[in-house]
Amino acid sequence: MESGMTSSVNQVSINIGPVSLEGELIIPGGARGVVLFAHGSGSSRMSPRNRYVAGVLNQAGLATLLFDLLTEEEERIDMLTAELRFDIGLLARRVIAATDWLAAHETTAGMNIGIFGASTGAAAALVAAAERPVMVRAVVSRGGRPDLAEVSLARVKAPTLLIVGGDDDAVIQLNEQALAQLHSEKKLEIAPGATHLFEEPGTLEEVARLAADWFRQHLASIV
Description:
By secondary structure, the chain is an alpha/beta fold. It contains seven helices and eight strands, in the order E-E-E-H-E-H-H-E-H-E-H-E-H-E-H.
């Protein structure tokens, strides 16, 4: 983000059927693209990893929307049963609704939309991309489970970047299988020395750099 460029920070509520989900929309001055974050299992819009990546995207001149995929009551249920975090149909419907919200909202209407998905949120992101092929212009998956979106992968048109930790062996295999089923522009990046949560020094920074480059290329055409 250029020196002196200011950002607007807005706390928003997204109404989806009978529920209202809370989010944070940050729009740097001059932003031409917006990235919706779909967090992973048992996480929320307060995820420190996603908030770090969002900050890097804001610095790159991209708007971001971090929002909760579950209500507070649903989160309490999920903490006990873990049943909702793997309900890809439910999560995808909410990511789709948030995508529609961004396309209609006065501050983001007309912006190219991308989705950054982590863990099970990546599957929801890919389903949303398949269901909204015109709206969703790019997808990035961090340590994702794209295999959980298997029935939708062939219909994804958005350029898709899959980022996996080099020491996350099981997830590497799942991402390689998903990559073969994608027919859009696609790329698999393996971060050396990283495990599933990218907690090792320098690994999350690499994720943020790769994501910023991908979204700048496909959403904002920033060079």
